[in-house]
Automatic annotation (TrEMBL):
Name this polypeptide is given: 3-oxoacyl-[acyl-carrier protein] reductase
Oxidoreductase is among the record's keywords: yes
Organism (species): Pseudonocardia parietis
EC number: 1.1.1.100
CDD domains: SDR_c
Enzyme class: oxidoreductase
Family affiliation: Belongs to the short-chain dehydrogenases/reductases (SDR) family.
Length: 250
């Protein structure tokens, strides 16, 4: 475990499988002040209570990432409580209803772009406003998906929203490099979470076969977040880091 000043990290979707695993990993790396945000306060509490302890302070916030004002308020609360914001992880997302494009509804396109895409826009906007004022900038990490890089049939709104997250990441990286803010995204393949729990049994063999290393767990993905949050990635910005058990390789 590293010592030194605490790193202030805000994570959205922190009650979910990946968000909670990232929080655990960053807490294990050294002193951390974690601001854990999710739609569900009830599911955040058990995550927070297992993390709080020597070297780890935790603030929880119920935040809907589709609401720009709520995301701004969460970032303001982080700064008020911990004095700065070092790492912003825009991780909240929702899966699209399965269906080919002609069966997708306007509501589903809207839902995906409001949460999965605009959630990352709101988080990036709120974070850069703070990080630009910090001498050593900060690191923004968006959770994208291989579905934003490759054609993933039957979930077009989700894939399109994730592709938009990747593009947002790259443009933000270029716009804010001079202000020492690095912006990267992680593109996971399929791993176990509430989001993937409903995959029908008959679809699992085919999906597994498309991941040469098999399906993943959240812990298989967190190393990319640890790298992008830390000093080893000081010369990495605008990257879409693929962590997918080989899904996107063929
Ligand atoms: N599970 C996978 O196979 C997979 C693959 C690639 C990318 N991802 C991405 O990983 C991220 C985390 O997903 P997960 O797999 O841990 O799923 P999860 O369902 O366990 O976690 C998602 C969390 O986001 C929260 N959330 C949903 N809408 C929100 C909103 N409007 N505001 C705030 N919080 C909201 C949920 O309450 C939940 O706790 C998502 O962005 C997802 O798209 C997941």
């Amino acid at each position: 475990m590293e010592s030194g000043p605490s790193r202030v990290v805000l994570i959205t979707g922190a009650a979910g499988a990946l968000g909670a695993a990232v929080a655990r990993r960053l807490a294990s790396e050294g002193p951390a002040d974690l601001v854990l945000c999710d739609l569900s306060g009830e599911r955040l509490e058990p995550v927070a209570s297992t993390l709080e302890g020597p070297g780890t302070r935790v603030l929880t916030r119920v935040v809907d990432v589709s609401d720009a004002a709520a995301v701004d308020a969460a970032v303001a609360a982080a700064v008020e409580r911990f004095g700065r914001l070092d790492v912003m992880i825009n991780n909240a997302g929702v899966i699209a209803t399965n269906g080919r494009i002609h069966n997708q509804t306007a509501q589903e396109w809207d839902r995906q772009f409001r949460i999965t895409f605009l959630g990352a826009v709101h988080g990036t906007t709120a974070a850069v406003r703070v990080m630009r004022t910090q001498e050593d900038g900060g690191s923004i990490i968006n959770t994208a998906s291989v579905a934003g890089l490759t054609a993933w049939p039957y979930t077009a709104p989700y894939g399109a929203a994730k592709a938009a997250v990747i593009q947002l990441t790259k443009v933000a990286a270029v716009e804010y490099a001079k202000e020492r803010i690095r912006v990267n995204c992680v593109c996971p393949g399929t791993f176990e979470s509430a989001m993937t729990a409903d995959i029908p049994d008959e679809a699992l063999p085919g999906l597994t076969a498309r991941h040469p290393l098999g399906l993943g767990a959240p812990e298989d993905v967190v190393g990319a977040f640890a790298y992008l949050a830390g000093a080893d990635s000081r010369w990495t910005t605008g990257s879409a880091m693929v962590v997918d058990g080989g899904y996107a390789a063929p």
